[in-house]
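Hi R.,

Here's the chain you asked about this morning:
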Amino acid sequence: MLDYIIIIEKGDGNNSAYCPDLPGVAAAAETEDETIDLIRDAIELHLEGLKDENSGLCNQNSRP
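And the predicted structure, written out as tokens:
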């Protein structure tokens, strides 16, 4: 399993996160912990979809 870099941005009353290696994968929640949980779920779901489509992954910043 690879680790992915995520960027968390704090706003007024919420947090958002995205994964630079996986365009379109993002999450937002009230707390940082909730945001991290949601982005993990989003990454997992996205990777499952790519696997189902037999899409190759090119992740320059990811690491095993």
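Strands lie at 7-10, 15-18, 26-29.

Let me know if you need anything else.
M.
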